[in-house]
Description:
Layout: H1 4-14, H2 18-31, H3 36-48, H4 52-65, H5 70-82, H6 86-99, H7 104-116, H8 120-133, H9 140-153, H10 157-172, H11 176-189, H12 192-205, H13 210-222, H14 226-239, H15 243-255, H16 259-272, H17 277-289, H18 293-306, H19 311-321, H20 327-336, H21 344-360, H22 364-383, H23 392-405, E1 421-426, H24 433-441, E2 446-447, H25 454-469, H26 478-494, E3 502-505, H27 514-520, E4 526-530, H28 533-541, H29 555-575, E5 580-584, H30 585-590, H31 592-602, H32 650-656, H33 676-684, H34 687-693
Amino acid sequence: MQDPRLAEAAQRRLADDFRGAWSLCQAVLQDQPGNAAAFSIMAICAIETGDLATGAKLLDQADQADPAEPLSALYRSMLLEATGDLPAALAAARRASELAPDRFDVWGRYGDLAGKLEDFEVCAEALSRAIEVEPGHPAAPQVALRLAGARMEMRDLEGTDAALKAAEAGGLAGSLDVLRLKSELARHVGDWNLLARTAQAWLDLAPDDLEAMGALALGLGQQGLYKRAVRLFQTVVDSDGTAENWAAMGRLILGTRDLLGAKAAFDKALELDPDCAEATFGRARILTFMGDTQEAARMCRRTLEIDPGNFEAYGQLSEVTGGRLTDEELAQLEIEVEKPGMPADRLSIGLFALGDAYHRRKRREDAFRAWGRANDTKKLQHNGAIVSAYDRAEQERRTAWLETVFAGPVPGPYPDSPAQQPLFIVGMPRSGTTLIEAAIAAHKDVVAGGELSMMPALFEEFLRWAAETGWSGGDIPQERADHWRARYLSQYADYDLTGSPWVTDKQPANFIAVGLMRRLFPASPVIHIRRKPVEVAFSIYRRNFSRMWPYAHDLDDLAHVYAQQSRLGAHWARTDPDWVTPLQFEDLVGDFETQLRKVVARCGLAWDPNCLTYYDAPERAVMTFSAVQVRKPPSADHLDSTSPYADFLLPFEQALSAFPVSPDTGAWGEASGPGRSGERARAREGGFLSRLLGRPS
């Protein structure tokens, strides 16, 4: 386009001054009768004012004048789109990109048409080229946003993130479309905190947007804030009571432990749509929690009939059948896990189930490879890269600091015991906490609380308070302790844990908080159950642990965290021996009644024979990975699950050998571990608290 009048005509057309653009082009044609660009601009003016016939004639004239005129190909794509012929429009846009590879608008047009035809790979390539040829174009941020959408459709999460950042840098940060896409990206990578924050910003801009409400409810629910999520999502269900929304509500209600309410929501979904896979799977989960494994398996298989790619159903089916997938189910699962673009949180579930199916068939190399892929996928979900998110140095600092500030038994006088007293069960995940809780909770004076969420939250609040105030041991101010104590006890009403003087809490994350627990509830017993380290590590490594457990996906990390817990366990038993009761899982299983009687007596409870037959309580829901195993009597048959995998687990054994931890019992030895004296010195110098405050130590 050499004539300056044509450049002005193009600008007038963009400003909707079609008459002015037309006049300038006519003037050019008077001087240059065969100017293809002038014909093309006149054509697009006609097209955009609704005169498609004139536009077509002018484009034909442009092609006759110069078949290589890019504007003619570009505007013909617009004409063809206006007539509804998208494939031909795409072909014309592709031709324009070949004729003018340095034009931003040509590549943007080509990309947009490819996106409309759902050819997202071509769309992403074209939009990327548009930004490359003119990164400073005023429309570049909008093109970057559309590129992010195409990348998301391709499940290219890194590409989506990069394009979104470019759109935000170009001035679109905080816009509805950016927030919507960021929420979708956060959902796919499993960053639930980011999802909640982004969805809240989205909802602030669009308070009536049901999609934003749903995204926020999901983010809150995945962080354990189920009651808030249910209240929020109720608005969605009231406005749009589809089967899918009722099933999503059931999942959220299930998080509050209201099994009857969740069942009602799933039943409503199935009433609306008998083929709602989310609802059939929800029913399978409830049946698992209640111990009806046969019916749970049937509902899992019903889910897979509806949705053969439902990884959660494969995982639940593997759990309730002990990995006994049929040959057909295994073959389908093998296909599903290899499909590209699968969200990391879903893919990991499928890979764990695949490993379990191979394990059942004694295909041990295949099993361990599948579990390894699953754990690498979890790392990717947590970090965006296959690297560990577990901070070993921080864990060591925290352990040393706790040993320093909780150096002895709880001093009196003690506060009055509450009407319902906690009974704490601590230990590594998969160490037997569910077994001992089930046995003790069968006692007439005890109700099972399961894995309560309040103490970990209070412990993090305690750490912040200690950092801010410079607390370094001794008494916690009564007002502060009373506040935390009331907060902890308030969860009993939330979960309907009433009617018994004792409530168990087997949250594994409580282990590090024993010192605080003893300050808040000095009359509450603490049972510390320990299990052979390699058995614990193997059991954790095979299961789909959440973001809360960053060490669960790496054998070296598992050895390190086991050693730190072993060290703390020895410290708690030494400094508070009257209330902290060590218990060896292997001893418990080997001589169940003798060991159980000792534990019950140590808790200050009279003996109740129901504790021996805990597995005969079908009305009790168990909502942990051990929901199936705990329905059976204790058995020594499964004490050694690791021998067939000894070679694969050698890295764990080697990593653990760096610490004075018994490989047979997990007990901490008398010898000092590597760097232990240095850790104590750093703790005394306040390094841990300084780190919390963000100051150099």
